[in-house]
Specification:
5-stranded mixed β-sheet, elongated, Jelly Rolls, Transcription Regulator spoIIAA, 738 residues, 30 helices
């Protein structure tokens, strides 16, 4: 690294270190407030452990080199709820060692389990599932934590929580003079930082506020001991509080019953930690135009928290505001994150007694600012960003958190997320394409006479291509839609219903009953139900649900009169349905009784022309499997099919072959290469014993010389043939685009 890059990263790291220190102390004061304020030294040491260890490991392993990690406001709120609940339950009369041991065990357990959860989510690449939590639900969680930050800040600065019953207590002079300056400075921070986005503004304002407050205490002549006792400054902090706590730690003094009672809140802590990492990672990506590996970040943060749990810290994760501050200050390397982490570790090792002189109102104002920012972002700004329904959901979660508690709010939000997901997913149609046989045909080309019949009758085939995951929310609307279509008064009665599962990822057991009901509807209306491209799992579920019998599932040829059939692909199913229609019209088997001229006469401009054309044709009798020509051959002829059928196969670059089209009696094959003079685009093989008539290049040239009228008729014939194909191709394309 160049000297300039090193300097910028050192400067950014130092600036981030200062903000990390102030934030860590503020969060510790939030967690260890009220009846736990006597353990504030332990809280500050735990916060510094988190800032040092989590900050170092995240800076070392993150895919974005300038990330800053450590204690987080949203996570600290949940920790404060747990710690406050345990402290209240223990009561003021509990022995000091019982309180410290129980709180230390609670912090270690919550940090360890959260770390294990984050590591597992990242290790098994489950981070994407966090993204399924609806954005309004996440907004409700964060706005709720913002409200709890505001309430907790009053406990920090005035030692009185913000509740409806404490309003009269808070407006007393002795309490008002503590929280009013914090409120004023927090609102000043909100106003200034919403107008000015310079990275130095907030650090300078915080440092200036600390300096002004300390100067005011000095000028007023208030003794330091009085400033401590009257809660203007933090209480004296023992530099080795964490070590002393571990030395006096004893499982005998732990109230495990109280810790177990916090399991619901602990679960909420895990969820909130994962959501915070997701949102902070996404915000860093957007602000810095970088790509962050979410699963890798979850794994690294999980490992860091597992280590922190062993040495007495509490949960840490990506710090969004401090990361952006670090980046804006010029950080581009991991050095800045290492500097911030080592700064916290240095204070922890060398001594943190000077932190006692941090003004409590300034720390409280930082908590108030963070709370106000979250509430303004999701409640005020959210009014203009979200729909009324989404906004109502945010407000509902905040109200539940404020009235009944954070765990109830999280539980309500998760239930709402599940309901919203099911509702919104059910609004996504499972019908990818809705087609009719008249506009979407199989890759089987037949004689003009058969094609004319299919043009009139092929709308008896109703095709639905399904998509996505089919469950109870989407299966029943699909059933009612198909039922109405089958029973609608269309010009053509539906005789075949094709359900294509090519794009279906899966279905649940409740939807199987819907397809069983659909089979009954089809049987009642004389409709053959045809399943196409079923995966082995879906096939098993449908079979177990009674949608078809095992014998039907094994008969892909579908040469029976059953009401339900299965096919491997849509083209095969379409071809079978078309043959059933032709069979009903009594022309399924055209034999040698149909002469070549009978098959083509309707496409020829003059009926007599075709009799003269036979003089230039060479009759070819071929067995099944006979290669008429190979892909890449030179086009020296084209063929008229009188009896049997041929299939065009395309050889792929990987050596595999795929069927392009099957040509039946009354069709022409090889005409493209013949007219364009390009190598054969596919290999043509007879499907059954066939009779073909070959028009060679030499005979064609001879005809152009000897019989100009016949040559013109052949050209018109080819134009009509190709025009018909183009009409069908356009109709199929239009159906797919709709």
């Amino acid at each position: 690294m160049s000297g300039r890059i090193i300097f910028l990263n050192l400067f950014a790291g130092t600036l981030s270190s200062i903000m990390t220190l102030i934030a860590s102390v503020s969060y510790a004061a939030l967690i260890f407030s009220g009846s736990l304020s006597g353990n504030l030294s332990l809280g500050i040491c735990s916060a510094l452990v988190s800032a040092a260890v989590v900050g170092f490991i995240v800076a070392w392993r993150s895919s974005v080199p300038f990330l800053i990690a450590g204690p987080d406001a949203n996570v600290s709120v949940v920790l404060a709820i747990m710690a406050g609940s345990v402290g209240t339950s223990l009561g003021s009369g509990a022995p000091a060692w019982t309180v410290s041991s129980t709180i230390l065990a609670l912090m270690a357990l919550s940090t360890g389990l959260t770390g294990l959860f984050l590591y597992a989510v990242g290790r098994f690449h489950l981070g994407q599932w966090i993204r399924f939590v609806p954005y309004p639900v996440i907004g409700g969680f964060l706005a709720g934590t913002g409200w709890l930050l505001i309430c907790g800040s009053f406990r920090v600065v005035a030692d009185v929580p913000l509740t409806l019953g404490n309003i009269l207590v808070l407006v007393r002079y002795e309490n008002l003079i503590h929280w009013l300056p914090s409120m004023a400075f927090a609102l000043l921070l909100v106003c200034i930082l919403r107008c000015f986005n310079q990275f130095l503004v907030m650090p300078l304002l915080i440092l200036a506020a600390i300096a002004v407050f300390l100067l005011a205490i000095h000028v007023s002549g208030i003794p330091t001991s009085q400033a401590f006792s009257e809660r203007w400054l933090l209480a004296p902090i023992a530099g080795n509080a964490l070590l002393e706590s571990w030395n006096s730690f004893s499982s005998v003094h732990i109230s495990w019953a109280l810790i177990l009672s916090e399991v619901p809140t602990l679960v909420a802590l895990m969820i909130v930690s994962a959501i915070v990492i997701l949102l902070n990672a996404a915000s860093v990506e957007i602000a810095t135009k970088t790509d962050l590996d979410l699963d890798g970040q979850l794994e690294s943060t999980g490992l860091a928290n597992l280590l922190v749990a062993l040495i007495g810290g509490f949960v840490g994760c990506i710090a969004l505001s401090r990361t952006l501050l670090n980046w804006k200050a010029g950080a581009t390397k991991r050095l800045s994150g290492f500097v911030a982490a080592l700064f916290s570790a240095g204070i922890l090792v060398l001594g943190s007694s000077f932190l006692s002189y941090l003004p409590i109102p300034v720390l409280g104002s930082l908590l108030l600012y963070l709370g106000f920012s979250l509430v303004i972002e999701w409640i005020y700004d959210g009014w203009f960003r979200f729909s009324r329904f989404d906004y109502s959901l945010i407000v509902a979660i905040v109200v539940i958190i404020a009235v009944w508690g954070f765990v109830h709010g999280v539980a309500f939000g998760l239930v709402a997320a599940c309901i919203l997901f099911a509702f919104n997913y059910s609004r996504i149609g499972v019908i990818r394409h809705e087609l009719w046989g008249g506009g979407y045909r199989s890759n089987v080309e037949r004689s003009y006479r058969k094609e004319r019949i299919l043009r009139e009758k092929a709308d008896q085939i109703y095709i639905i291509r399904l998509q996505g995951y089919i469950f109870f929310g989407t299966a029943y609307p699909l059933l009612t839609y198909i039922r109405d279509r089958i029973k609608s008064h269309r010009p053509t009665v539906v005789r075949f219903l094709l359900l294509d599962f090519t794009y279906v990822s899966g279905l649940d057991s409740s939807s199987v009953l819907t397809f069983s009901k659909l089979k009954q509807i089809c049987e009642a209306n004389g409709v053959r139900l045809i399943f196409v491209h079923l995966s082995s799992q879906i096939k098993r579920l449908l079979q177990e649900g009674g949608c078809f019998e095992e014998s039907e599932a094994d008969q892909y040829s579908a040469e029976n009169e059953a009401s339900c059939h299965l096919f491997h692909d849509l083209d095969q199913a379409l071809g079978w349905c078309e043959e059933q229609i032709l069979k009903v019209e009594s022309i399924k088997h055209e034999t040698g009784a149909y002469r070549l001229e009978d098959l083509y006469v309707e496409l020829f401009p003059e009926n007599t022309s075709f009799f003269r054309l036979k003089e230039y044709l060479e009759k070819v009798e071929a067995p099944a499997g006979h290669v008429v020509f190979n892909q890449g051959d030179q086009p020296d002829s084209m063929y008229f099919v009188e009896v049997g059928s041929v299939t065009v196969w395309l050889e792929l670059p990987n050596g595999e072959t795929t069927r392009l089209r099957t040509m039946g009696m009354g069709t022409v094959v090889g005409e493209m290469g013949f007219y364009l003079g390009i190598p054969r685009s596919g290999t043509v093989v007879t499907e059954e014993p066939s009779v073909l008539y070959r028009l060679s290049k030499a005979s064609y040239d001879k005809m152009n010389v000897e019989d100009h009228e016949l040559a013109a008729s052949v050209h018109q014939f080819m134009v009509r043939l190709l025009a018909n194909r183009l009409v069908y191709a356009n109709k199929q394309l239009a159906n797919l685009i709709e």
